[in-house]
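for the recovery benchmark. tokens below, seq after
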């Protein structure tokens, strides 16, 4: 589901992030991110869903597989942000 594109006071495109705050390209995790905490995963999913970043760009930028990204998206849809906790992944799988 794509969100309406919005511009902040600086003219930067943004989407509403997972915590309800504006999320711009500058707010996204750096491309060399190796440690994927819940918030960072959710930010990337929100950016793609909101049209801030294309799926192809996200996969290339973060060296992700489509399956990995889709798993994040599915976890958010099914269990919310807590579904992204890697230490609890077995608990959430069904």
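predicted aa per position
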């Amino acid at each position: 589901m794509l969100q309406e594109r919005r511009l902040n006071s600086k003219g930067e495109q943004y989407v509403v992030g997972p915590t309800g705050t504006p999320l711009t390209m500058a707010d996204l995790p750096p491309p060399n991110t190796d440690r994927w905490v819940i918030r960072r995963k959710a930010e990337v999913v929100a950016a793609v869903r909101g049209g801030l970043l294309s799926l192809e760009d996200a996969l290339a930028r973060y060296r992700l597989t489509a399956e990995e990204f889709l798993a994040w998206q599915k976890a958010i849809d099914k269990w919310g942000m807590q579904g992204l906790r890697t230490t609890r992944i077995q608990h959430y799988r069904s």
